[in-house]
Inverse folding.
């Protein structure tokens, strides 16, 4: 049980780190492409993080049936 708890903590740390890095990459890519080439408004870092959370949430909802079926098989 303790081993499983450690794995969940490690997974959560990796997910948070990936979200922060993804926010920087999304912010840079949006501000270089959309602002300079298309003339759209700049994105703030908080908007990039919010979009990342939205994408992660949508992905989790799509994968949820797979996780539920795996949990039932063990």
């Amino acid at each position: 049980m303790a081993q499983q708890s450690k794995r969940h903590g490690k997974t959560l740390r990796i997910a948070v780190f990936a979200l922060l890095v993804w926010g920087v990459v999304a912010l840079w890519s949006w501000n270089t492409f959309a602002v300079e080439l298309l003339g759209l408004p700049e994105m703030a870092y908080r908007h990039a993080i919010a979009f990342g959370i939205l994408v992660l949430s949508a992905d989790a909802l799509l994968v949820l049936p797979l996780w539920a079926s795996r949990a039932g098989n063990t």
Summary: DSSP finds two helices and no strands in the chain. The chain has one domain: 2-73. The two ends are 15 Å apart (CA to CA).
